[in-house]
Amino acid sequence: MYRFLFYVIGLLILSFGVVLTIKADLGAGAWDALNVGLAKTVGFTVGTWVMIVGIVLIILNAVLLKKFPEIFALLTIVLIGTFVDFWLELVFKHWAPSGLFFRFGILIFGLIVISIGVALYLQTQFPLNPIDQFMMVLHQKLNVSIQAAKTLAELLALILAFFFNGPIGIGTVIITFLIGPLIQFFYPKCQTIFRRLQYR
């Protein structure tokens, strides 16, 4: 029960943080900038592109790991895509924060929220968000830290976002280089909480 709760709450928190960074309008995270850019240039909602890009990554991860695609990861991207559209299209559709300092604060808060969300749902060992699975694949294949693997994955997405005219800015740079360390920071803390609840 705790595992499923951590999983859903983690994804809900993650998607909330994603939308905050988009709404800050200082440059979204690399993967989110890619999804926003695709939504603007091709069509469909940002959440829909979360799902489409996720499917591509599921296939890529399977190739890198040389195993059958993680079909259950579809559940994760469907939930994230749905939650992103919920926050972006319903809750915050008409919200446009103003003022540079306030927007910067929203960006940093969103970044922290994303990191906590990722650290929470990773504890459950349920199907990973394909982006985070890609991070873990790089972590395993290249024998680097989670922090380094996340940063490498973000840099790859940043290049793709540039080609699709995604919202790249100072916020993108901040997120690209801080998301890995922040997940690394929150992961053991969330792990401690998860284990305490699990063995109560």
TrEMBL record:
InterPro entries: YczE/YyaS-like. The chain crosses the membrane at residues 5-22, 42-64, 71-88, 100-122, 142-162, 168-187. It holds the Pfam family DUF6198. It comes from the Bacteria. Keywords: Membrane, Transmembrane, Transmembrane helix. PANTHER family: INTEGRAL MEMBRANE PROTEIN, INTEGRAL MEMBRANE PROTEIN-RELATED. This is Membrane protein YczE.
